[in-house]
Amino acid sequence: MTAIMESRRFVADHSAVVEEKVTVATTLEEVEALRDVWKSLHVDDIDSDIDYYMTVVRHADQVIRPHVVHIRQDGGADLLAVARLENLPVPFRFGYRRLGSATLRAIVVTFGGILGARNKYEEEIVLRHLKKDLDKGVADLILMRNVDVDSTLYATALVATGWAQRAHAQPVSRRWMAVIPDSMTRFLETRSAKTRGNLRRHDNQLRMEFAGRLELRHLDRPEDAADLYRDMEAVAAKTYQRGLGVGFSGTPMQCALIKLGLDRGWYRTWMLYIDERPVAFWSGFGYGGTFQIGTPGFDPDMSKLSIGRFTMLRMLEDLCADPAISELDFGHGEADYKSSFGRAVRSESEVMLAASRPWPTLVMLAVSSLSFANNLVRRLVENSEWGRRLKAGWRRRMASR
After folding, report:
1. Which residue ranges does the record assign to the BioF2-like acetyltransferase domain (predicted)?
2. Cys bridge to 261: 43, 266, 382, 399, which one at CB 3.0-4.6 A?
3. Phi, then psi, of 233 in degrees rounded to 5
């Protein structure tokens, strides 16, 4: 049921009283009623697009219902917190080993899901109303993913709860982006002559070795959906990412989002075939001038042929030729292709805020303790050759399962 309340509060300098009207949309019908307000606000990330959001709510297994907080301030200014109420498994991990998990009822904010907030003060307003739902028992936890650690939102969130109710030492990862110019030549001109030469050589070697047997297909039409699902699964099933539970796995939610993207002209896949067999793909969503890639995949048995890089370069050529795309978002985390073709633009982390109740607080303390230990081990691994070999061997084992 939609909750509506009227409240009065002082602004930061206590010089005036401002009235707020707060509405919480808890059904898809109530979310749809917010479409005009939603469309009037700037959305950076496709995850916070209203239609993408509703598709996730309809198809994600762990989603209970929508939880979109609309705050209308004095003067008509609108704020939205785009979130879902979920049964969220909180994993307890040491290294790559999963020790167990606890399932908490969580308000999960979408990526870039605080809409309309122009400053720290308005971010405080949104977080205050989200936290009220923790206090009322609606949820045990607020989760915000991929928050810029240098942002006012991150700083505001860190002081929104007590020390014991916040997850500490959460991993920080870098977000990698690339500017997309109007030609592949311009895209590569900042790379060294040696790098450009190596790319041409690898391309030519692959074309020569598989002359007449190599085919790249660009799948971006609604009628491509069935072939796309089948061939992505054929490749993704062999990757180490499948062992991690990331990347394409053919879930109803993934397929529904791809269908939405194909219908809207957002989604594209570049699929490489050798002898009619799919061996590599790159895919993603173009939204608001940015192309956000998904998890790529390639057959690990053919890794020495650089089939993943070959396919990525074909994607880049097409994106450079598309005037609607000005940026490429490689996502967060470390990978050679990200540092080779993109630049780190910010550092991001998760924010987890728990209710002031015993069980959620205990879960946060466990998560924080394991995060401190994992960060120590991660530094040891990343700074040693044996650690890098161990990590590479683990990925090979995951891919072979």
Report:
1. 193-339
2. 266
3. -65, -40
For 356-377, the pLDDT digits (tens) are 999 999 999 999 999 999 988 8
Task: Give the strand pairing for 173-179 and 141-148.
Answer: unpaired
pTM here is: 0.90
CA torsion 123-128-130-136 (nearest 10°) is: 180
Assigned CATH topology for domain 3-174+348-397:
Aminopeptidase (3.40.630)
Q: Mean pLDDT of all residues in the chain?
A: 91
Under CATH, domain 181-325 is a member of which superfamily?
Answer: Gcn5-related N-acetyltransferase (GNAT) (3.40.630.30)
Locus of tokens 């989002």: 257
In sequence order, what are the residues at sequence separation of 6 or more whose Cβ sits closer than 8 angstroms to the Cβ of residue 56? 47, 63, 84, 253, 257
Domain 3-174+348-397 matches domain 181-325 at the CATH topology level: yes
Whether the Cβ atoms of residue 92 and residue 370 lie closer than 8 Å to each other:
yes
The torsion angle over the Cα atoms of residues 380, 381, 385 and 391, rounded to 10 degrees, is 170
Q: What is the DSSP string of 72-130?
A: EETTS-EEEEEEEEEEEEEEEEETTEEEEEEEEEEEEEEEEEEES--SHHHHHHHHHHH
Question: What residue spans define the domains of the chain?
Answer: 3-174+348-397, 181-325
User: 24 in helix, strand or coil?
Assistant: strand
The DSSP code for 239 is S
Q: Percent helix, strand and coil across the chain, each rounded to 5?
A: 45, 30, 25
Residues 280/235, Cβ–Cβ less than 8 Å: yes
